[in-house]
Amino acid sequence: MRQPLRYPWFNLDVDDPSAPAIAVRVDVPETRAEVPAHRHRKGQLVFALGGGVTCRVPSGLWMVPPHCGVWIPGDMEHSNVATANARIFFVYVEPGAADLPCRCCTLSISPLLRELIIELSDGEQDDEARDGLLIRTLLTELPRMPVQRLHLPISVEPRLRRIAEALAQDPADRSTLAEWANRVALSESSLARLVVKETGLSFGRWRQQLHLIVAIRELASGASVQQVSGDLGYGSVTAFITMFKKALGKPPAKYLGSITQNGGSAFVA
């Protein structure tokens, strides 16, 4: 069950034009929480210090593991789902205040930027000069963060979106390409070509990308490798670890450890 995700105070205007950047900390309760589809003028960085967040935009699904962030340009419709007990931060940036991408992307978060975000999210700060310096430093550092490729491309093509939604609801579904093709009234070869055309990935690689996103999200929220392996429909833990290591170069524990230690330098190729 998902609960609505609430800001720590009710009178927050994230589009306040007088503020070049606004940082907000949100602590998620013991159940998953969601911000339904919405948009705002300011761009938004979604940053997870603990737990995981999944961002959905019209063109894809973006995972926010600990110590990484997803940049969402202003006026782009999006929704956010956070794992239970997550500690997340939203940073809203005024258009033109920093040289940031005009597309949605995953960013590494350096230790310096992390501390700037945490400090600015403290609503009790009342030193305007100091806050201004912190904001200027944040807006200087944020464009310097490396871009990762940690997302699932989702096409607006209705048949692929239907498959993506079904797999997101039940990632353990091991239906073959032929079975999916039958469900969406296409031949197997036509569906295979459509997936490559719309996503740039084969069907198997596309589904694997979804599994990696779900796995990282669940592992980051504290689930065991055994639990995640079962939830994704793998016949054994070994098979899951082999897939994970082949895709990311490291087994699950080492991968998550590298994200924590290096500020999110690992990525999905």
UniProtKB/TrEMBL annotation:
<dbReference type="InterPro" id="IPR009057">
    <property type="entry name" value="Homeodomain-like_sf"/>
</dbReference>
<feature type="domain" description="HTH araC/xylS-type">
    <location>
        <begin position="161"/>
        <end position="258"/>
    </location>
</feature>
<dbReference type="GO" id="GO:0043565">
    <property type="term" value="F:sequence-specific DNA binding"/>
</dbReference>
<dbReference type="InterPro" id="IPR011051">
    <property type="entry name" value="RmlC_Cupin_sf"/>
</dbReference>
<protein>
    <submittedName>
        <fullName>Putative DNA-binding transcriptional regulator</fullName>
    </submittedName>
</protein>
<dbReference type="GO" id="GO:0003700">
    <property type="term" value="F:DNA-binding transcription factor activity"/>
</dbReference>
<keyword id="KW-0804">Transcription</keyword>
<keyword id="KW-0678">Repressor</keyword>
<keyword id="KW-0238">DNA-binding</keyword>
<keyword id="KW-0805">Transcription regulation</keyword>
<dbReference type="InterPro" id="IPR018060">
    <property type="entry name" value="HTH_AraC"/>
</dbReference>
<dbReference type="Pfam" id="PF12833">
    <property type="entry name" value="HTH_18"/>
</dbReference>
